[in-house]
């Protein structure tokens, strides 16, 4: 397993060297975990000119929590001697000691104050920008990463499936959300991948709705969005149900529309498809039906060590899908005051020859009346 | 209520003006909430030269979630027209339009990349450092803030009290933690103030232990740490119990020691006491008993809109306590392989004439055998 991390660091080292930096400092936690196998709280990763110099700098002795992952044993590990010190400052020192003249840092993560502190301690070290080089490496997943996502999705499907068997009317959004999170953990998740959203009645269909004290009522739309974190890998599923025996006509129509949009988005997931075309496939169905106004700025995004990572499936996104990129497809329509529908899946882009996109979240997308 | 926010912004405006900046940009979410009454996701607050120019800039239409607070109605509110835009760039533009020559920003929060983007869009705007001016304003709380903390502590005590009445043996740390979080919400919390920690047996007494699948066993120490978030205000309680009928001698000794340290810390909470002296009061008792080695670098810290804010009660901390500062006192000892004890309270510093420190978390600190 350890070689995986060394290979990833090697790729990054090559990119840095090509850009003129002999050393790089990775601070964004998901990037640290990707390259080091673990991201103890506050830890940063210094890539030296030579692989044997790669060092994980921790602000204090890391707690040994299996859910945090295990640091690659091929990596040097240093705990700062003084509590309260900033590992990025120690990393600047170390980079100087290793003879680096230039250090690439993650300017999109590092604060101005920390950047300045590095400059003060190592004034002759040129601080360059690493940009989103690690995020770009993370886009295409290896099969081990996809296996983690697959397990995360299985756990998520189980948790949701159990909820559907229970009585829902009269329970609050908050309770249902907490129960879903408990079930995720019951089934082996390290935790929820993000804050579980449960939205009833007029709240339904709203992206990122935070559970309130509203209770589920007969006739409601109920939309839920949840996902498991398994070994750091996060997936998402979203489903909308109807409470009661018979959905109203407007509910059936809206559901069918969002379902069609979501299917179009899923079907557009082929290697080589432009991000914006996938977005367009789903979006134009909703727009043509007159729901263009309140749509979210994206209809899907990458998932992995973060729940929302590159690529973004949005009208202005630049780039094309590769195989082995896991993404969500999650269009939704919310009608203020009435409610709405969201359907989210996590899928892995696969070539047609391999059967097309691999659906990880397999809970039915029929409109269930619960 | 609205005047509170205007007064706070007025204080900050005065400080900025004194430091030579006519305008300030607040980006840290807790600081935005403190000055604006709410912090919709991604929103930033621009303080203009005149109070009527103060503007909350939101990346998109904010979801109306009561738990997020309500934006002060005296404040201008702008939603960025284009999705994906960065409100700090719009704020730099607006500051220029308002005639500001200099804008103070939170360099400890703003990333290098965002800072640079502001510089590109407004090259003639001098970007100064606001430092932790807002954090400093937040240290001393008004009675309304303390009332929120008091309610948060009541909720927390209730949730913990109910847990103590249930059967614990055989249940996992994860389950107990999830149950505590559910109970917090049941009793009116907007959510947990931080990730609830439940630590059994050899895990007990470890600060920040993340709940595992270990089950509670007879003879274990069980330490829990939890807190409610009520209207944005967060408190913490930590208690350690013994499972079974009779604690072992080493358990009683260790408990009494940590209890004595925690009491000493609490008793040191008087207006005018140096932060480091409060820390010392608790710490030296543990050190004298030979447990100096593995101690946390602090024995307490401020609480409010964040669970861990200024001041820090630590050996090298500079500054003195004021009245109306809520802090935790939370010493602990963990013996690797055996377990340990943590006792955390949230208190408000009050003058002796007012009865001394106000204990918010009132669950008993006797060593209960459950």
TrEMBL record, chains A, B:
InterPro entries noted in UniProt: Creatin/AminoP/Spt16_N, Creatinase/aminopeptidase-like, Creatinase_N, Pept_M24, Peptidase_M24B
Residue ranges annotated for the Creatinase N-terminal domain, each copy included: 8-140
Protein name as catalogued: Peptidase
Lineage: superkingdom: Bacteria
Pfam families on file: Creatinase_N, Peptidase_M24
Annotated source species: Streptomyces fulvorobeus
Signal peptide (residue range): none
Domain Peptidase M24: 148-350
GO molecular function: aminopeptidase activity
Span list, region Disordered: 195-214
UniProt keyword annotations, A-Z: Aminopeptidase, Hydrolase, Protease
């Amino acid at each position: 397993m350890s070689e995986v991390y060394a290979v990833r660091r090697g790729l990054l080292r090559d990119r840095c060297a090509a850009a003129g930096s002999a050393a790089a400092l990775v601070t964004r936690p998901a990037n640290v975990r990707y390259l080091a196998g673990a991201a103890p709280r506050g830890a940063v990763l210094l890539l030296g000119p030579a692989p044997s110099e790669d060092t994980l700098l921790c602000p204090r002795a890391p707690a040994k929590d299996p859910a945090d992952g295990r640091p690659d044993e091929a990596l040097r590990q240093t705990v700062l001697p003084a509590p309260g010190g900033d590992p990025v400052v120690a990393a600047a020192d170390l980079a100087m000691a290793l003879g680096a003249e230039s250090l690439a840092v993650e300017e999109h993560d590092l604060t101005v104050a920390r950047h300045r502190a590095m400059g003060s301690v190592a004034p002759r070290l040129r601080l360059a920008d690493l940009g989103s080089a690690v995020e770009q490496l993370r886009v295409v997943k290896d099969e081990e990463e996809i296996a983690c996502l697959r397990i995360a999705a299985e756990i998520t499907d189980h948790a949701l499936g159990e909820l559907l068997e229970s009585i829902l009317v009269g329970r609050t959004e908050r309770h249902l959300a907490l129960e879903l999170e408990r079930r995720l953990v019951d089934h082996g998740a390290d935790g929820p991948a993000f804050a579980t959203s449960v939205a009833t009645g007029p709240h339904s269909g709203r992206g990122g709705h935070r559970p309130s004290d509203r209770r589920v009522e007969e006739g409601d739309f109920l939309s839920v969005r949840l996902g498991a974190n398994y070994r750091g890998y996060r997936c998402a599923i979203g489903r909308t149900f109807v409470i009661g025996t018979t959905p109203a006509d407007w509910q059936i129509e809206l559901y069918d529309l969002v379902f069609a949009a979501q299917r179009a988005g899923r079907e557009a997931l082929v290697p080589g498809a432009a991000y914006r075309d996938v977005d367009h496939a789903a979006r134009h169905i909703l727009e043509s039906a007159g729901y263009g106004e309140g749509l979210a700025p994206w209809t899907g995004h990458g998932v992995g060590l973060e729940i929302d990572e590159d690529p973004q499936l949005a009208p202005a996104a630049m780039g094309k899908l590769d195989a082995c990129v896991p993404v969500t497809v999650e269009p939704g329509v919310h009608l203020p005051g009435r409610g709405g529908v969201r359907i989210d899946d996590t899928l892995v882009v696969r070539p047609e020859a391999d059967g097309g996109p691999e659906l990880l979240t397999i809970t039915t997308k029929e409109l269930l009346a619960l």
